[in-house]
């Protein structure tokens, strides 16, 4: 009887993952269909399948498709990073943006954009160094005989404010180069194309592989440090390694889309509500639903006030800030 229940639960979770995959495909097609030039969904599918040599096909293949794919990968990476950080830092309030990891990536990315624009290809590794440095500082500040969620949040807010001051200082001293950097700090997908897709793709594949491979360790880590240690898990080494994976995922997203907040907060919670707390399902579910959320949010951002285009970071802030306050009140 028990084995039947476990099998049934596993089938139910796999069905949810399949549903998330269908939603992702549907959101990508909707994103391709909507814009300054609206296209019927069947025409979009036909263009993707046949690739005709006309102007409409060029709009799909050279403008909308790469941007949509970049948005989906950004959402996947940020959602995965949030899910990992919530397990590692033992707080449901953890998110790359809220606790300052994205700010660390943003500061080093801004340094490259403003001071060394000819080395733009170094943004992703530089952002990783910044994100990892911020995560280590936050973890060290929050550690006092163990980790408590409120200390993580407060340390993250402090580090994020400090790094934000550094970013603001750079923007003031180099005001002649502010425009591109300012749009990058808001978080958006405007003008993203195939070069950005090929930049983020290997990091997404590598980070997703590492995350899925480590799902069992995250499940053990959720049991508490003492229990995890008694089961043979090297707790601090695992926590450091998973923090590095989350930093890599967040940095790759920041490097192509700027500082985009709240994806890593909203998506893992939504997935847990539907699929449970098993990270073998939470991680792939977060990856799929993260792509859905960012793809649809970007579609909304570029169509709601067309022809004016809003940065997708503004839409995510409107969605995420009230959700964060709700979680903060609930945790308190």
Task: Describe the overall structure.
The chain contains 14 helices and no strands. It is mostly helical. The longest helix is centred in the N-terminal third of the chain and has 34 residues, at 55-88. The radius of gyration is 20 Å and the shape is globular. The chain is 78% helix and 0% strand. The two termini are 39 Å apart.
Question: Span between N and C termini?
Answer: 39 Å
Provide the gyration radius in Å.
20 Å
Q: What count of helical segments does DSSP give?
A: 14
| SSE ordering | HHHHHHHHHHHHHH
From the structure provided, what is the oligomeric state, counting identical versus distinct chains? Answer: single chain
Describe the main β-sheet briefly.
none
**Strand pairing plus helix content: what structural class?**
mainly alpha
Can you tell me the overall shape? globular
Helix content: over 70%
> Roughly what fraction of the amino acids lie in strands?
under 5%
Mean pLDDT: 87
**Count the strands?**
0
**Low-confidence blocks of residues:** none
